[in-house]
Design goal:
Elements: H1 43-58, H2 64-70, H3 75-82, H4 91-100, H5 105-115, H6 131-141, E1 147-150, E2 156-159, H7 161-166, H8 177-183, H9 185-190, H10 194-211, H11 216-228, H12 230-238, E3 249-254, E4 262-270, E5 279-285, H13 288-301, E6 320-322, H14 325-329, E7 337-338, H15 340-346, E8 350-355, E9 360-366, E10 372-377, H16 379-385, H17 396-405, H18 411-442
Antiparallel strand pairs: 1-2, 1-5, 3-4, 4-5, 6-10, 7-8, 8-9, 9-10
Region (Disordered): 1-31, 293-312
Organism: Streptomyces albospinus
InterPro entries: Lambda_DNA-bd_dom_sf (IPR010982), MLTR_LBD (IPR041413)
Length: 457
């Protein structure tokens, strides 16, 4: 399992690199010097975004004068903050702004970090030959569940055997959680609700930016991610979520080690006291009864049938449970196309519906209580699990529809991509035929004959 840069999100592919925008969007380079996080996001953009969110949450407009008053400063002083002026805020001012904007713990922590110029500089994770590192690795090895250790730059610096079995990509040189999760085709297949998780991963990256504003490696990682994908760049620029670490978080994954069956997991994040810049993440299985309880809670929060209009950019509003498969299909939006044959091949009470407006598939799964869990997935998630579908009578049209959805929207770009992929596939077929021939020549009595041009000479 490895991951390269991929087209992703409801709008696929990256367009122009992030330019030198101000107010939290600046990523301009000075010569060949690497970007530092402070060039990617600033306090000004966060303050404006937080003020807008708080105004909407409270149902009244919070003005610049309101913020200036709680900080005991002039409105001009605060206006300068929102236009990019560099200044340090006192702890009292940070707490006053946090109270006015109803900021959460992580957002307030981010504001405090920014006002102090960041946390203590993050150093490299200690080498394996140090007593501390050996002790942490021993702790990883003793875990029965998959577990890994991440440094402050989200690099994979330790893992146990179960994690290596679940996610072999962690063994790749320079493996990085954020790069794999946000840019690889594989991640979009593994995580059933990838769009939702992408928002959380970017929120954690924002916190890293504020925590280590002068760390060039973090700056380069963020720049690589937001420049590689237009959808991720838009999420980075338009949202203001900030998260230090995900709490116990529920998600569904589809892995080869589980025969691509969807399993429900929780991740627990721990910060070793001896390695303050690192975090240990342990995957735990959700018990069936726990899953049912969570499903019931999600069901209570799901919108009524009259509110099934799609949310921004084709992204579902969270974990959804509905009463019927028809109700689930409504999430595919206008022009939805049912995929009955692929649904039957998928089995296990599955109902698939393609949404042309978002180029995603609504995946509904019937639960023991008769309700249907709803997820939004990339068409690749369906195709990769059913390569045999192309040979099934009647399934070819549905298979072709999803294959087209994976290609660029523009016809010229789509054909160019097809030509590139066809050339690669032809070469792979040739290699397989060569291997077949080699096996036949080594074991002619046991292996079926395969033709080769040399046979005609």
């Amino acid at each position: 399992m490895g991951g390269g840069t991929a087209e992703s999100g409801p709008e696929q592919g990256g367009n122009e690199p992030l330019s030198g925008k101000q107010d939290g969007k600046q990523a301009g380079r000075e010569g060949t010097r690497p970007l530092v996080p402070a060039q990617l996001m600033g306090l000004a953009g966060l303050l404006r975004a937080w003020r807008a969110v708080a105004s909407e949450r409270l149902g009244r407009q919070i003005t610049q004068q309101d913020v200036a008053d709680v900080c005991a400063r002039s409105v001009r002083w605060y206006r300068d903050l929102e236009t990019g002026a560099t200044t340090r805020l006192s702890r009292e001012q940070c707490e006053a702004i946090g109270k006015l904007f109803t900021l959460g713990r992580d957002e307030l922590q981010a504001l405090l970090l920014y006002s102090m110029g960041g946390a203590v500089a993050a150093g490299p994770a200690p080498a394996f030959d140090t007593p501390t590192r050996r002790a942490v690795q021993a702790l990883l090895d003793q875990q029965a569940n998959p577990a890994w250790l991440l440094d402050s730059k989200w690099n994979i610096v330790g893992y146990n055997d179960p994690m290596k079995t679940w996610c072999p990509w962690v063994m790749d040189p320079g493996a990085n959680l954020m790069r794999w999760s946000l840019l690889s085709d594989e991640a979009k297949t593994v995580f059933v609700d990838w769009n939702k998780h992408a928002i959380e991963w970017l929120a954690m990256l924002r916190f890293s930016v504020l925590q280590h504003p002068q760390d060039a490696e973090i700056g380069a990682l963020v720049a690589e991610i937001i420049n590689a994908d237009a959808y991720l760049r838009r999420l980075w620029e338009e949202r203001c979520d900030v998260t230090e670490a995900r709490e116990a978080f529920y998600y569904r994954v589809s892995l080869p080690t589980h025969n691509f069956e969807i399993v429900e997991l929780e991740s627990q994040t721990l910060f070793p006291a001896a390695l303050p810049d690192c975090r240990m993440v342990i995957m735990t299985w959700l018990h069936p009864e726990s899953s049912k309880t969570q499903a019931a809670e999600m069901s209570a929060q799901a919108p009524e049938s009259g509110e099934l209009a799609r949310r921004s950019n084709g992204q579902l509003p969270g974990q959804i449970s509905v009463a019927t498969a028809a109700e689930a299909a409504t999430y595919a939006g206008e022009g939805a196309v049912a995929l009955p044959i692929l649904s039957e091949l998928m089995g296990h009470g599955c109902r698939l519906t393609y949404g042309p407006s978002t180029r995603t598939v609504i995946w509904a799964t019937r639960q023991d209580d008769g309700r249907w869990d709803v997820a939004e997935v990339n068409p690749y998630t369906v195709i990769v699990r059913m390569p045999q579908a192309i040979h099934v009578k009647g399934a070819s049209e549905e298979y072709k529809l999803l294959t087209r959805a994976l290609l660029p929207i523009d016809s010229h770009d789509a054909v160019q991509r097809i030509q590139e992929m066809t050339a690669q596939l032809r070469r792979r077929i040739e290699v397989l035929e060569e291997v077949h021939r080699d096996e036949w020549e080594a074991n002619r009595d046991q292996v079926p004959y395969t033709w080769h041009p040399v046979d005609e000479i």
